[in-house]
Amino acid sequence: MAPIRRSIIDERGRAYGRGGRKTASARVWIQPGFGNVVVNRKDFVDYFERTSDRELILEALAATETLGRFDVTATVEGGGLRGQAGAIRHGLARALNHYNPDVYRPPLKRLGYLTRDPRKVERKKIGHLKARKKPQWVKR
């Protein structure tokens, strides 16, 4: 039998989600609104100059057909801009799942937005130039 999932909304009517990607971590709050997205107290258009990063964030809202229905507030730190955008998308998907799991969970789960991408930078090994690159081999 499937577990009964219920909404987790605070006294201000917000749902919270924490997301991560590589070394970036994001805390995301959503509340009913007009589609404003604020990242680190800046409009997300000013924070993310590349449109591909902005589209990455909005994928979770597009998947649940909620573009323009929620105001999103995010605090993100660590990593680069692409990793931060991925962390916000992950946190936003989890926040939507907490807001209404019955409606929003299936499309988010199907697209894999609720799953933390476990890939991280591989460490450099001793005697190697990079993580896997070895020095040029000389036969004689």
TrEMBL record:
Superkingdom to which the source organism belongs: Eukaryota
Pfam families in UniProt: Ribosomal_S9
Name of this chain's protein: Putative mitochondrial ribosomal protein S9
Family: Belongs to the universal ribosomal protein uS9 family.
Biological processes per GO annotation: translation
Originating species: Fragilariopsis cylindrus CCMP1102
Annotated GO MF terms: RNA binding; structural constituent of ribosome
Entry keyword annotation includes Ribonucleoprotein: yes
InterPro entries, sorted: Ribosomal_Su5_D2-typ_SF, Ribosomal_uS9, Ribosomal_uS9_bac/plastid, Ribosomal_uS9_CS, Ribsml_uS5_D2-typ_fold_subgr
